[in-house]
Amino acid sequence: MASHPVNLVLRFALELAALTAAGYWGWTQGTGGWRWVWAIGLPLVMAALWGTFRVDGDPKEAPVRVPGMVRLALEAAFFATAVALLAVAGQVQLAIVFGVVILAHYAVSYDRIAWLLQQK
């Protein structure tokens, strides 16, 4: 189910939404130049971390190979951070909805989770 085209589009949309949430949080932090640094810098750092780690057999290539459990933990941290940043920025209802959609996506992607947990 994880490789169904609709689920893959949803996953990509969730990744973009997480980066947008980080940028939104950054924009709410202060004024002037630091606002821009946070709004642009944090999503760039998160995107770089997202693309750095891979599991053998993942369709996307990345420079650092990690066990499946580590990749799953990194994904959970990535999305949990985005949800928390939305909440801290004052968008609590949006954070709740975003978190529920993320959980639903992972529930539907149970086969990918099982596969990741088997990867050493």
Summarize the model shown.
76% of the residues lie in helices and 3% in strands. It has 120 residues and is mainly alpha-helical.
Round the mean pLDDT to the nearest integer and report it. Answer: 92
N-to-C series of helices and strands:
HHEEHHH
The major beta sheet can be summarized as: 2 strands, parallel
* End-to-end distance: 22 Å
Number of helices: 5
Radius of gyration over C-alpha positions, nearest whole angstrom: 15 Å
Helicity level? over 70%
**Percentage of residues in DSSP E strands:** under 5%
Shape assignment? globular
State the total count of DSSP E strands. 2
Tags for this entry?
single chain, 120 residues, mainly alpha, two-stranded parallel ribbon
Explain what this protein looks like in three dimensions.
- The chain is mainly alpha-helical and 120 residues long.
- The chain has helices at 5-28, 33-52, 68-88, 92-108, 110-118, and strands at 53-54, 64-65.
- A two-stranded parallel ribbon has the order 1-2.
- It is globular and about 45 Å long.
Write the layout of secondary structure elements.
Elements: H1 5-28, H2 33-52, E1 53-54, E2 64-65, H3 68-88, H4 92-108, H5 110-118
